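# step 3/5: fold
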Amino acid sequence: MAQLVIGIDPGTATTGYGLVREDDGQLECVGFGVVTTSARESLALRLEAIYRDLTTVFQQHRPTTAAVEKLFFHRNVSSAMAVGQGRGVALLAVAHCGLDVGEYTPLEVKQAVTGYGKASKSQVQQMVGTLLNLEEIPRPDDAADALAVAICHAHAARTVELTAKART
């Protein structure tokens, strides 16, 4: 059964999103982009912009499921807090739109896309382009990362579906 997955790479300055259609194991890029906010604005306005713009993407594309990258440990606590706040707003937007959500660590995303959990950022981006038959690597990096999150979720959902079929 076909599904349209939205992957989200959260942040407060830049939140990436990527839409991937999965149909019987075949992947197709539907679209991608970023929500950017200005450091000159208050945090409250930046978070509201992320929520509003993600909600608009959901309304335009009508994804059937969503995936958000989990926060990983940062050495810089203020950076981790900012990413965490952006992640919380992304999860709220997903919940508000009534979508089921998968959450994946960067290691899980890299493993799903490249087969190696410690792959470099450029290796992940190259494989995203290859898996989605894109002529160019998606830019900016946050959008490519969001597509990787969507691919990871599509693979995970496909595995669950195939396992359920095997048991019946």
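# step 4/5: annotate
Residues 125 and 144 are 6 Å apart (CA to CA).
# step 5/5: archive (pending)
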